[in-house]
Amino acid sequence: MLGALVLPPLLGLVSFARIERAILLAARLRPAAPLDDDVAARLVDAILLRLPGPWGWTCLRRAAVIYFLLRSARRDAELCIGVRRAHDGSLRAHAWLLRDGALYLEPERFRDGAAGFTVIARFPSTTTAPAR
What we know:
Helix 1 (2-10) packs across helix 4 and helix 3 packs antiparallel against helix 4. The chain is α+β, with helices and mostly antiparallel strands and 132 residues long. The protein has helices spanning 2-10, 16-29, 37-50, 59-72; strands at 78-85, 91-99, 102-103, 118-123. It has one domain.
């Protein structure tokens, strides 16, 4: 779960595209041990909910850490970042994971997931080869 400690603060310092390149390189050099996706997601949630500041739980931090774990284990997954206008006119953002085109490991309270969000970024990008 080193990713839960390293990735969240990096999200404020470098682009996710750069982080993704590092994830894919790490997966090629040293694949992670097999993991149960549901258990990993629950563990990431438990860790991020207990950490302060730049490590605390947000949908982007959660999705980034789980994406890192999945891709490091050479599992296919996509991380999507989207935006939408709220009823009060403010801009809302959300990050989520997809697998085989469907929401994946999304917390119960976000089961509406991507509904109404316009995707502004998707990883892996179409120019990045999947880690297999």
